[in-house]
């Protein structure tokens, strides 16, 4: 199995290292024709405007849209989530081009600036059920987006409680983040799955926990079933939760 990783900017090396710990090769993708050599793709976190400009310069958007439309598995983390969204708000003047395919509205800079980055324990029952390990995952949020709305076919995999005074966008805070009568803060969505698409607002590649990568690889295997060339060897088991060998500086 070889997984493409969009290598324009951002944390593509960390994704490749995480795949390597699972025994899978990550292939750097920078040009449209390189997408023909892979059957799945990870769009990493980074600076979404810069990534969009580089993708436009290399004429990648038509190829990326076609890749998604063909039903090939694609996982977007942080900036990659923004790329995959059908609609985005909180953008700079003029906005940025999107790949689309994921039926959601994402707020591009929901959690604020770089200095407002944080880590938090997320409840991930769907991931724990399929991959084992603890019921929580340590989410690393770096200048992170959030999903405000999802369509009926989108499965929510993780959400995060947000107090109105912690939200970067004051307009959204006033409209949607008021506490209910019990004093419980409203939640925003930070991880979703829709068909062949997976998206996380946080950075699993910056942790030692490879369960999200294993979960994505299972999506790749499921899509590969029934094709002339199976992407997973018969009987291959990708569900394992263990302390991996660390070969890059990552958050523990």
TrEMBL record:
Superkingdom of source: Eukaryota
Pfam families in the cross-refs: SNO
EC number(s) on file: 3.5.1.2
InterPro entries in alphabetical order: Class_I_gatase-like, PdxT/SNO, PdxT/SNO_CS
GO biological process entries: pyridoxal phosphate biosynthetic process; pyridoxine metabolic process
Active site residues of this protein: 78 (nucleophile), 203 (charge relay system), 205 (charge relay system)
Gene3D superfamilies listed in its UniProt record: 3.40.50.880
Gene Ontology molecular function terms on file: glutaminase activity; lyase activity
Catalytic activity of the protein: L-glutamine + H2O = L-glutamate + NH4(+)
Keyword presence, Hydrolase: yes
Gene Ontology, cellular component aspect: cytosol; glutaminase complex
Keyword entries, A-Z: Glutamine amidotransferase, Hydrolase, Lyase
Enzyme class: hydrolase
The keyword Hydrolase is assigned to this record: yes
UniProt-annotated binding residues for L-glutamine: 46-48, 108, 142-143
Family of this protein: Belongs to the glutaminase PdxT/SNO family.
Name of the protein this chain belongs to: glutaminase
Species assigned in the record: Actinidia chinensis var. chinensis
Lineage: Eukaryota, Viridiplantae, Streptophyta, Embryophyta, Tracheophyta
């Amino acid at each position: 199995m070889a997984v493409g990783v969009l290598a324009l900017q951002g944390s593509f090396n960390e994704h490749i290292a995480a795949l390597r710990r699972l025994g899978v090769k990550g292939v750097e993708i920078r040009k449209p024709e390189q997408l023909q050599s892979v059957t799945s793709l990870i769009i990493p976190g980074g600076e979404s405007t810069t990534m969009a400009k580089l993708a436009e310069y290399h004429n990648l958007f038509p190829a990326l849209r076609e890749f998604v439309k063909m039903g090939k598995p694609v996982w977007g983390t942080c900036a990659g989530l923004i790329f995959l969204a059908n609609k985005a708000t909180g953008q700079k003047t003029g906005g940025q081009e999107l790949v689309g395919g994921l039926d959601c509205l994402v707020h591009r800079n929901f959690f604020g600036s770089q200095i407002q980055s944080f880590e938090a324990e997320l409840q991930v029952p769907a991931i724990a059920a399929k991959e084992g390990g603890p019921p929580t995952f340590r989410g690393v949020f770096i200048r992170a987006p959030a999903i405000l709305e999802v369509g009926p076919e989108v499965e929510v995999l993780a959400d995060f409680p947000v107090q109105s005074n912690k939200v970067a966008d004051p307009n959204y805070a006033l409209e949607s983040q008021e506490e209910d009568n019990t004093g419980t803060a409203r939640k925003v969505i930070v991880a979703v799955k829709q068909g062949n698409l997976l998206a996380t607002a946080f950075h699993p590649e910056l942790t030692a926990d490879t369960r999200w990568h294993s979960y994505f690889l299972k999506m790749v295997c499921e899509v590969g079933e029934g094709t002339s060339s199976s992407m997973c060897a018969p009987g291959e088991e990708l569900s394992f939760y263990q302390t991996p060998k660390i070969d890059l500086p990552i958050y523990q």
